[in-house]
Amino acid sequence: MAGPTTAERGALGPQGGPGGPEGKVRPPRKGAPVERFPRPGPRSLLIAFGALIAVAGAIWLLYGSAWLRAEHVETTGTEVLTPREVEAVAAVPIGAPLISVDTDAIEARLRQELPRIDAVEVERSWPHGIELVVTERKPVLLLEKGAKFVEVDARSVRFATVATAPKGVPLLRLKVDGSASLNRFGADRLVAEAVRVRSELPAKVAADLRSMKVVSYDYISLELSGDRSVVWGSPEAGEAKARALTALMKAAPKAGHFDVSAPSAPAVSRS
Predict the structure, then answer these.
(1) What's the rounded Cα separation, in Å, for the pair 153 and 150?
(2) What's the pLDDT at 141?
(3) Which site from 25, 109, 150, 153 is most exposed, i.e. has the minimal number of CB atoms within 10 Å?
C-alpha cells in the first residue's frame, strides 16, 4: 500500500501529527470555510424572554404583591401559656411578605423569653398565615421557694416559678445546707440526681410519690401515699433498686417502710 505523498506528509507534520515542522498547526488556507455557531432563532429568544418574565413575576408575587403577606398567626400546643402570650413574644410582622418572615428569629425569641417552652416550630402557612406549634415543659418535681414553687422538668431545668403547686407533682426537699455533698456536688447536681431517681421509679411508685428528700448524695428518701416511706440511698443502681422495691411491695403489701439502699439486701418493716 502506498504511503502518504510529500504534500500529505507536510500537512501531517513530524510523527504523523497535524501541522508542519515541529508539529505546529497550520492556519486554514485562504478561502477555506470557517466554522460558525448558529445564531439563536426567534423561538429560542421567545423562550428565554418568557423565562425572564416568569422569574420577575415570581419575585414580584413573593415580595411586592399584596397577595402573599402575613395576615394572621395561629398557635397550638399551649397548656399553661396562652396563645396570646406566645404571639405577643413572637411579634410576627403582620403585613410583611410571608417569604421574608424570619422564622428562625421568632423561634429563638420564644425559647429565650418563655422558658416554659421546650420546643417550638414556626412555619409559614400559605398564602397568609404563620403557625406556632408549641411544646411546653412538664414539671416532674417542685422546689419550694418561700411561699412559691419552682418547677423542674425531666432534664433538671428549672423553668418557672408558680404560686400554686401543680396537682400531682411531687415536692423535692433539699436538706443539704452545710453538708459535704453540697460542697462537693453543688445544688444543681443534687437536683439532677433527684430527677434521675424519679425517672427510675416503678410506675406504681411514681404515681404514689408525694415528696422526695435529699439529705446528701448518698441518702435520698421517698414519701408515698398511705404514710409509706422508702430509703433509696444514692442515685446509683437505680434499676436494681426499682426491682427490689417492686418485689418488697408485692411480698409485704401492708408494710409502711422499705429500704432498698442496698438492693442486694433490701429490708421492710411495718413502720
Answers:
(1) 10
(2) 98
(3) 25
| pLDDT value of residue 238 | 97
Statement: the pTM of the whole predicted model exceeds 0.90: no
Domains of the chain: 72-136 (3.10.20.310), 141-269 (3.40.50.11690)
3-state SS, the chain, equals CCCCCHHHHHHHCHHHCCCCHHHCCCCCCCCCCCCCCCCCCHHHHHHHHHHHHHHHHHHHHHHHCCCCECCEEEEECCCCCCHHHHHHHHCCCCCCEHHHCCHHHHHHHHHHHCCCEEEEEEEEECCCEEEEEEEECCCCEEEEECCEEEEECCCCCEEEEECCCCCCCCEEEECCCCCHHHHHHCHHHHHHHHHHHHHHCCHHHHHHEEEEEEEECCEEEEEECCCEEEEEECCCCHHHHHHHHHHHHHHCCCCCEEECCCCCCCEEECC
Residue 7 pLDDT: 47
Regions of the chain with pLDDT less than 70: 1-37, 40-41, 44-46, 48-67
